[in-house]
Each structure stands twice: as structure tokens, then as C-alpha cells.
Design a protein that fits this description.
The structure holds two protein chains of two kinds. By secondary structure, chain A is α/β, with parallel strands linked by helices. Chain A contains nine helices and twelve strands. Chain A has helices at residues 21-25, 47-54, 76-89, 118-134, 157-168, 176-186, 190-194, 227-239, 256-270; strands spanning 11-16, 32-36, 58-62, 94-98, 100-103, 106-112, 139-143, 171-175, 202-207, 211-213, 216-218, 244-247. By secondary structure, chain B is of the alpha+beta class. Classes of the chains: A alpha/beta, B alpha+beta.
């Protein structure tokens, strides 16, 4: 099943967070942002967010707790919430992760990798189909950064994702920083993964920074975007430029000049117009 | 929680989550160092989220907040940052600074929480808090007395 959904050009964006709401709202040429879906109250969205929507800025609700990769069916109320977010924010699509966040009633506290097995593909497919059937807009799914793999993997990451997209018709939210982090931690070439992914299915990309600790690169979203990630943005655009790149920052917020410089650097690397 | 699609995968995922968040044994075949590093990263992220929900509590620990919270939370799966901070503060009630104690008292005036089920907002309450008396009515809180000008948390 392959969908013929096309995503309009989004350009360069930055994730909306309460801590940087003023900065995001003040970006004169911003056309694209993303909000953590679980933080949205669809009955009364934050006034700053509603103002962006009314200004015509594309807002993508980004879920983090649906657990599409969990062996249990996705919770109907969580899917309904995602759908309500899309409606109230007039979103052209929503996104979630190729991951699970809870099992047996225990919350992991973050996104965990699924085994790259046929069994995991089956549950992901079932959960993505359930979710898509309740959503008013297309769904993009995002592979995560991970420091470890399951011992029983049957697929490479590229084959696993390609099959998942083929089976479900979902779009790909490709996190360039995750590609960078995983390749760096595995000692692999990030371009090798890029070259094997269906780049024509990419709805948009995430870009973020991280930090090295204990010999591992952690994709924390709490540090500056490293040059290696910006290089990957350029490499990706040289192959097939996706509709947009979105900077994710989730902590240790820098002065606005630094955030502005990061957005400019992403614009320069991708060839999209600056939004600052 | 509904019936799993796949019982075997559900059990494998549960074993991994128990190992990472609830002190369970690590299932065979995983890179133990990498799983531990991931679990530590999650605890640091949780500490940051609790600090946003409980700024005075976290602030009272200064630079040692992340390590202190992580030590407490290491075998306690998250129940959301609001409850995690609340559970932590209650566990340390005797040692809280004046500011952290006031933050806890104001939250306890505004919300009812038995430590087991999710907190719910009190409709009306009059409670003594450090520095005065908190009046709660229709979801709003007002503190009368000394220190009434200090910030009121959710």
C-alpha cells in the first residue's frame, strides 16, 4: 500500500515549546512549526499557538506517547486526541514515532526501540492502520535515536522502515540527527542509511543537537546542532530535498541569537529561505 | 490496557521496560552498558521534566538535582512529571527547604492526591500553608498572610 500523499513545501521551522514561544512567534518569515501533541488542549489551545495558526503557519502535532510499536493496540483516546489536535490546529499532517513507550502498564519514560523483526512489523502495521483510520490527515512516522538494538533483529534499519512504509502508506519523518547519532554510535556511515531509505516518502525532517557522554553520542535536543548533522542536511538535499526541516530544542535554551543562527545554518545547508 | 496483539512481543517489551525503569533483570542478549546508558539518559530527562513542574523543589537541590532525583527514581517508573515530583517531595518532606515546602503545600492545597490514583483539583479548601492560609475556590488559589506575594504553582 503506497499513498500518493504529497506534503506542501514547509521550509525551515522550529519546534514550538512554551519556553521559546515568544521567539517562535517573533520569527517574521516562519511558515512551519511543530507542537508536542500531548501538551495541546484541543478545547483551548495556547493563545500563542492559536495566533500562529491564525497567521497561516503550518503546525504539525507531534505525538510522543502513542506507542505505535507497542505489542498492545494503541489507546483509542490517545488517537482521538491526536485527531482533535489536527482539527483544531488545521494541521496538514501529524507525526509519531516508530517506538514503544510502555509495556505491561509500565511507562518507560521515553521512546524505546522495537526489535526489527516481522513480529514488530506486524504490530506497528496494525497500530499505524488503526491510527490512520481515525485521523483526518496523513501520518508521518519517525525512526528514533537508539543506543542499543534488540538481539533478535531480522532486518536492517533501511529494509525495516521501507517495508513499514510500504505496508502502511505512512509518510516518513526522518530525523537527520537520529541518523547521525545512530551511525556515529554504531561506527557506520550515515550516508549509507540515507542512500537506502525511500527519500521520496519523507514528509519533513528533524534537526537537533546532542552531546557526547561516556563514549556515546546522546541525541538530547539540549545542545547546538553539530556540523556533522548540518552536513547530512546538505547531503540529503543533494539527493532529494524534503519539504521541510524542523529544529528541535528541548532544554538548555540558548540566547535567541544562537537559536536564530542555528535556523540560518539549516536554511543555508538546505537551500530553503531563511525564516529569521 | 487492552489484550496484546502479540503475547510474546508484549512479554519481551515488558521485560525490557522493567529492566530499564523498575529494577528488573536485563533480558539476555542486550548490550548491558548501552541499555544502562539509555536508562540514565531517560532519568536525566525525567529530572528535567520534574524540574519544570516543580521549579522550587528542583532549585533547592541546585546542581545536585539531576543526580538526587535520578537516585530516587531509578527503580520507580514515571507516573508523569507532576506526580513524580510530588512523590519525591513527599518522600523527603522532612528535609525540604522552606521554598520547596511551600511549593508542596500550595500544590497540596490546590489538588487532592492519595499517592496512588491521579491527583484531582479540589473544588474548595482552606488550608494552612507556610506563610499564611490558602483559600481554594473554583480551581483558583489565593494565599492570605505573609509571603502571599510569592509565586503560586499550578
Amino acid at each position: 500500500m503506497v499513498s500518493d500523499v504529497t506534503v506542501p513545501e514547509l521550509g525551515v521551522g522550529v519546534g514550538w515549546r512554551p519556553e521559546i514561544a515568544g521567539f517562535v512567534e517573533a520569527l517574521p518569515k516562519l511558515r512551519f512549526t511543530e507542537v508536542i501533541a500531548e501538551s495541546v488542549h484541543p478545547e483551548r489551545p495556547a493563545p500563542d499557538l492559536a495566533a500562529l495558526r491564525d497567521r497561516g503557519v503550518t503546525i504539525v502535532p507531534h505525538g510522543v506517547k502513542l506507542s505505535l510499536g507497542g505489542a498492545e493496540p494503541v489507546a483509542a483516546d490517545r488517537v482521538a486526541h491526536l485527531a482533535a489536535c489536527a482539527e483544531v490546529l488545521k494541521a496538514p499532517l501529524v507525526s509519531e514515532h516508530v517506538a514503544f513507550v510502555r509495556a505491561g502498564g509500565i511507562e518507560a519514560g521515553h521512546l524505546l526501540p522495537v526489535p526489527r523483526t516481522r513480529a514488530a512489523l506486524d504490530v506497528l502495521t496494525a497500530n499505524i492502520r488503526r491510527t490512520r483510520s481515525e485521523l483526518p490527515v496523513p501520518l508521518a512516522v519517525e525512526p528514533i535515536a537508539m543506543l542499543f538494538d534488540w538481539p533478535d533483529d531480522e532486518y536492517t534499519e533501511a529494509d525495516f522502515l521501507t517495508e513499514l512504509l510500504d505496508r502502511t502508506g505512512a509518510l516518513l519523518l526522518l530525523d537527520v540527527a537520529n541518523v547521525y547519532a545512530n551511525a556515529r554510535n554504531r561506527g557506520e556511515d550515515p550516508l549509507a542509511l540515507l542512500d537506502r531509505l525511500p527519500l521520496d516518502r519523507v514528509a519533513y525532517c528533524h534537526v537537533a543537537g546532542g552531546s557526547e557522554a561516556g563514549g556515546r553520542y546522546h541525541d538530547t535536543h539540549a545542545a547546538a546542532v553539530p556540523a556533522g548533522v548540518l552536513d547530512l542536511v546538505a547531503e540529503m538535499c543533494a539527493r532529494q530535498r524534503p519539504p521541510g526541516f524542523l529544529l528541535e530544542r528541548d532544554g538548555h535554551y540558548p540566547p535567541v541569537d544562537e537559536l536564530r543562527a542555528e535556523l540560518d545554518a539549516i536554511a543555508a545547508a538546505s537551500g530553503f529561505p531563511a525564516v529569521t | 490496557m487492552s489484550e496484546p496483539f502479540d503475547v510474546e512481543l508484549a512479554a519481551a517489551q515488558e521485560a525490557l521496560v522493567r529492566a530499564m525503569a523498575a529494577g528488573g533483570p536485563l533480558p539476555e542478549g542486550f548490550d548491558a552498558d548501552a541499555v544502562r546508558a539509555t536508562a540514565r539518559g531517560i532519568l536525566a530527562k525525567r529530572a528535567g521534566e520534574v524540574a519544570r513542574a516543580w521549579p522550587l523543589l528542583a532549585g533547592s537541590y541546585g546542581a545536585s538535582w539531576t543526580a538526587t532525583f535520578a537516585g530516587w527514581a531509578t527503580e520507580r517508573p514515571t507516573r508523569g512529571s507532576f506526580r513524580d515530583g510530588w512523590d519525591f517531595a513527599r518522600a523527603r518532606r522532612a528535609d525540604l527547604t522552606a521554598e520547596a515546602a511551600r511549593e508542596l503545600a500550595l500544590v497540596e492545597a490546590r489538588w487532592s492526591y492519595d499517592g496512588a490514583s491521579p491527583p484531582w483539583p479540589r473544588r474548595a479548601a482552606v488550608r494552612r500553608v507556610p506563610g499564611g492560609v490558602a483559600l481554594v475556590a473554583r480551581g483558583r488559589i489565593r494565599v492570605i498572610g505573609r509571603g502571599a506575594g510569592a509565586p503560586t504553582p499550578r
